[in-house]
Amino acid sequence: MLLISFPAEGGRRVNILVTGGTGFVGGALVEHLIKSGHQVSLLSRRKGKDRRIRWFPLQDGRFPAESLEGVEIVVNLAGENIGGSRWTEAAKRRILDSRVSLTSQLVSACRKRREQCDNMPRLLINASAVGYYGTGEETIFTEEDGPGCGFLADVCRRWEAAAEEASPFGIRVIRLRLGVVLGPDGGMLAKMDRPFRFGLGGVVGSGRQWISWVHRDDVLGVIDQAIEDEAMTGAYNLCSFNPVTMAELCHALAGRLGGRAWATVPAFALRLAFGDMADEMLLSGQRVLPKRLSEAGYRFRHSRLEEALTAIYR
């Protein structure tokens, strides 16, 4: 977790608390802020050595209320890696608890600060995912659609509900439903591109499943806008206007790396290896559009897959 302090427009300093700040997205957010000349402090499970950063301990998964001192904005990205291991019942509990429990503790700490000193964050930017909508090959989902079925949909629904508990006592809450985040050195591509580099890549499953993706640069860009634009509130789909099928992604990746997607990874093999996770994350998808981001005037830096892959594999 991170406590980030940076100068706002006009030179006023704004304190921001970011959870999950050492992950694929959070780490890039920190570097983005440091390179922009901002000051950064971290709330982390272990103390780091970077002297540019002020460190606070996180122990036993408990949210330290003292970390909210002076904080105006919270960006909540924390959560155990959904694709990090096979979905056993224990793993599912960890995935859910690492999001819902910590978010509930965070909101409770904000409420207590309001009761004790009337000094609490004014904005909570909470991560979620397009998995909120469940899966489907035909439906086009926007923010007007409700939650779907399945484990991921349930996690997202409960995670967002925990964050929304901050709204009644005056905190502006933004829920960012992230698509598959693409970028260098991590995320989905880090797991996919190695076979393609050696000419062994293939299409996963039927290839018809939709991938609603977003370049990591645009995740940072939307967070920037959410901080600055006080009119933004509620749920926003954070993905490109141009989702692709798994087959299109695999062929584009193979072409970029100088090969071709000549094989198929069959569904039964994925289910054998990954269990339930294969059906929700690999063999199914959702076609999601960022309607509310468009209405908010956000302009994507990487709107098409080919542009995004070119930026990643320079």
Automatic annotation (TrEMBL):
The lineage of its organism: Bacteria, Bacillati, Bacillota, Clostridia, Eubacteriales. InterPro entries: DUF1731, Epimerase_deHydtase, NAD(P)-bd_dom_sf, SDR39U1. Residues 265-312 form the DUF1731 domain. Belongs to the NAD(P)-dependent epimerase/dehydratase family. SDR39U1 subfamily. Pfam families: DUF1731, Epimerase. Gene3D superfamilies: NAD(P)-binding Rossmann-like Domain. Residues 16-238 form the NAD-dependent epimerase/dehydratase domain. This is TIGR01777 family protein.
